[in-house]
Design a protein that fits this description.
The chain is an alpha+beta fold. The strands form two sheets. Strands 4-3-2-1-5 form a five-stranded antiparallel β-sheet. The chain has a two-stranded parallel sheet with strand order 6-7. Helix 2 runs parallel beside helix 4 and helix 3 packs across helix 4. The longest helix has 22 residues. Helices cover about 40% and strands about 20% of the residues. A hairpin with a 4-residue loop joins strand 3 and strand 4.
C-alpha cells in the first residue's frame, strides 16, 4: 500500500501536536492486513498508532512551509472577527478549528482567545484550549522556520502585543447571557483535573480501523 508519509518524517497530528513517523508497519486486524503509522508525539512523549488509510481523515499532515508559518504568525497581528460573549458558541467554533488543524486555523484560535482574555478572564476550558493551540503553533512554526520555541514564543507575543500598541479588541458581540463565570464554577464543582482537557483525542483504538 502506498503511504503519504515516510519514516523519520515530521508531521502534525491535529489536537496532539508535532510528531515524527517512527515506523510504517503491517498488522492484522479482523483477519485482514492493515498498514499503520507509528507516530511519536514529542510534546506529550506519547506514541500513537494510526491506520494509514485513516491518516487523511484524522487531519494528519506534513509541516507547513516557512512562508505558511510566517503567514500564520502575521495573522496574529491582524484584526479578527468580532468575538461572541457566548462561551458555548465560541468554544465550539474554536474546537472545530482545532480539529481541522491547519496552521492558519490554529493561529486564529490563539488570536481569538488571546483577544477575548483582554476583555474578560478566560474560563478554565478555554484557557486550556488556548494553551494547547499556542503550543501547537509554537512547535510547528519552530520546525518550519528552524527556530527555537522560545524565539517563536517571542514572535507570537510581539504580534499579539506590539510595543506601545492600543489593544486590538474593538467590539464584542454581546449575547443575552454571558456564561463564562457559570462555566468556571461548573468545572470546579465537577472536580475536573488539570489533566482533563475535554478535547484531546489521546489514543487511536484498533476497533476504529
Amino acid at each position: 500500500m502506498e503511504t503519504t508519509f515516510a519514516v523519520d518524517q515530521k508531521v502534525v497530528y491535529p489536537s496532539q501536536g508535532v510528531g515524527v513517523i517512527k515506523e510504517v508497519f503491517e498488522k492484522e486486524f479482523k483477519g485482514s492486513p492493515i498498514m499503520y503509522y507509528k507516530i511519536y508525539i514529542e510534546a506529550s512523549d506519547m506514541v500513537v498508532m494510526v491506520p494509514v488509510g485513516k491518516a487523511e481523515e484524522l487531519g494528519i499532515r506534513q509541516i507547513v512551509s516557512a512562508e505558511e508559518a510566517e503567514a500564520a504568525i502575521k495573522l496574529l497581528g491582524e484584526e479578527g472577527e468580532p468575538i461572541t460573549s457566548d462561551w458555548k458558541l465560541r468554544y465550539q467554533m474554536n474546537l472545530d478549528l482545532l480539529k481541522k488543524g491547519t496552521v492558519m486555523d490554529i493561529a486564529t484560535i490563539v488570536r481569538c482567545l488571546y483577544n477575548r482574555s483582554k476583555v474578560k478572564e478566560l474560563p478554565i476550558l478555554e484557557r486550556k484550549l488556548y494553551d494547547s493551540a499556542k503550543k501547537l503553533l509554537e512547535d510547528e512554526v519552530a520546525y518550519a522556520l528552524g527556530k527555537t520555541n522560545e524565539e517563536v514564543e517571542s514572535m507570537i507575543h510581539l504580534q499579539l502585543e506590539p510595543p506601545g500598541a492600543v489593544p486590538k479588541v474593538k467590539h464584542v458581540i454581546q449575547m443575552d447571557n454571558d456564561e463564562d463565570d457559570d462555566l468556571m464554577d461548573d468545572v470546579k464543582e465537577n472536580g475536573k483535573s488539570d489533566g482533563d482537557d475535554g478535547f484531546a483525542d489521546d489514543d487511536f483504538d484498533d476497533d476504529e480501523a
